[in-house]
Amino acid sequence: MSQSNEYVVLGAGITGLYTAYCLINEAKVSPHHITVIGEHLPGDGSINYTSPRAGGNFSCITPDDDDTLEFDKYTYTHLEDLQNNIGGASKGIDHRQTTEYWDVYPGDKKINSLKSYLKKLKVIPNVQLPAGVAYGIKYTTWNFFCPFYIQSIAKYLRSKGVTFIKRKLTHISQAYLPRTKVVFNCTGLGSFSISGVKDSNVYPTRGQVLVVHAPHIQENRMRWGEDYATYIIPRPHSNGQLVLGGFLQKDNWTGDTTLEQSKDIIKRTTTLMPEILDHPLDILAVSAGLRPSRYGGTRIDVQRIDGKLLIHNYGASGHGFQAGLGMAHRAVRLLLKEQQLSPKL
Ligand SMILES: Cc1cc2nc3c(=O)[nH]c(=O)nc-3n(C[C@H](O)[C@H](O)[C@H](O)COP(=O)(O)OP(=O)(O)OC[C@H]3O[C@@H](n4cnc5c(N)ncnc54)[C@H](O)[C@@H]3O)c2cc1C
Prior knowledge:
It comes from Dekkera bruxellensis (Brettanomyces custersii). InterPro entries: D-amino_acid_oxidase_CS, DAO, FAD-dep_OxRdtase. Keywords: FAD, Flavoprotein, Oxidoreductase. By secondary structure, the chain is of the alpha/beta class. The chain is built from six helices and 15 strands. The protein has one domain: D-Amino Acid Oxidase, Chain A, domain 2, CATH 3.30.9.10. The strands form two sheets. Strands 3, 4, 5, 8, 9, 10, 11, 12 and 13 form a nine-stranded mixed sheet that branches. Strands 6-2-1-7-15-14 form a six-stranded mixed sheet, covered by helices on one side. Strand 10 and strand 11 form a beta hairpin. Helix 1 (about 15-25) runs parallel beside helix 4 (about 145-160), helix 1 packs across helix 6 and helix 2 (about 65-85) packs across helix 6 (about 320-340). It is globular, with a radius of gyration of 20 Å. Bound molecules: flavin-adenine dinucleotide. Flavin-adenine dinucleotide binds near residues 15, 16, 39, 187 and 189.
């Protein structure tokens, strides 16, 4: 089948990949009509490319506004189809058990939403909570081997007929190729600087993580404090990689890592899960990443440029993997609505 560029997804992080996936599987767009453009593509590494640097799992990191609760729920409950479509758990997405502790109760709105869909959810009795913890839950979560998982989704999209172009754009209008009817802007932090968007509400939330070799740890453990986040996240089907974190530093653009932060991460994670030290700590990598945050939250809306559609889908902050399928679903529904109003689109 001949290629065309009717649908362009700008950005090949998890947000852009989920968007291309939903175009095919929800909007029934022919993959041969979809082009993904990105300065960085799955397999690349850069501080300006957040997705390969993520933890990553489904957790309670997200805020409790109605949109984000919906994005989390949609993603959690629809990832199994995606997992099957891309070839199963070995492609870097699988279930694992998790325990989450809060120093301050997260609120009924959040907890009631989680109770409506999380598998095997149990509230931990107060007497079993560690010192200083106000509330805790256990449930079955999703874990992602992020750098490999995004390559698996890209491989699936390519096998269906999606075209990938590696290119840095300086203006959003450059995303309109001959015959392009709609562009999805999934540039993450790039939306801060790309002309035609230049969203000054976009800012980074810096994180630092250690990746260690610890095949004996196969479950997640998270602790949320008022001014810190400590997490232990196994990467599924990764030959025993375990992610230890972390930091949530607002408006910090630094891609460097520090020894001081690494030591702090080791101290906090091994206190939370002493079993990590049942074997000598084998550090494989230390990395920093910039979560694409946005004042006002995720932006998913429609704009018109010279009569053509521009659908924004960015600002996933610390939850692109766990909420991004719901965000993509919303963005693609906006397209379908516009197409109903203007059937030529
Ligand atoms: C330490 C850390 C831990 C995390 N843990 C988790 C977790 O456990 N669970 C979870 O759900 N999330 C987690 N996240 C958050 C997650 O990584 C992000 O939400 C997600 O990666 C954002 O994806 P994105 O596609 O929006 O952006 P990105 O992955 O940054 O992709 C942006 C894309 O746009 C392209 N682009 C940008 N500007 C241009 C331009 N001008 N021209 C061409 N292309 C351009 C880039 O090249 C890239 O392809 C974590 C993040 C960090 C840093």
